[in-house]
Amino acid sequence: MPLKEMLRAQLDSVRSDLVETYPHLTDDLLPWAPAEGMRTVQGQFVEMISTEQAITTRLQGKESRSPDEEDAPLWAANSVAELVKMLDETRALTLQLLDQTSEEDLHAQVKVSSGFAEYLGLETVTAAALYSFIARHESYHAGQLVSYLWSRGDNPYDWD
Questions:
Q1: Which of 40, 77, 89, 101 shows the smallest number of beta carbons within 10 Å?
Q2: What is the value of pTM for the model shown?
Q3: Which DSSP string do the residues of 97-144 spell out, in sequence order?
Q4: Are the beta carbons of 24 and 154 closer than 8 angstroms?
Q5: What is the pLDDT of residues 102-151, one digit of tens each?
């Protein structure tokens, strides 16, 4: 199986998990978190979108903007639908970039901070590793949203 196909499958698979939460998220839940100090529902979306945008910016060899500048439109969103739209637009750009990347370029090293490389447990960070991280990162936050909903009595095992 080509690496590009595997990465696309990872991105699609985790997104399908996240999509399952959408019908259970309401606009009034955006500022809510299960406990003080935890990221809000909106904060989970902001984290997923901004991280994916930062990684694709890095993959394109561009300089990142400041986090405040990047996150401002995400925090200005006032509905789940608006955040989902931004999430979908971000993913569309990620998949477009993946489609334009050759199998050979997926194995090419991408310059990241030594701290991020250490966090990933890699001496050399490739483009493929960054695409895979996008899926892993989204999976983590999708799981948090499922847990948030479950803590409110919305059992994911009862979802159709």
A1: 89
A2: 0.94
A3: HHHTS-HHHHTSB----HHHHHHHT-SS-BHHHHHHHHHHHHHHHHHH
A4: yes
A5: 999 999 999 998 999 999 999 999 999 999 999 999 999 999 999 999 99
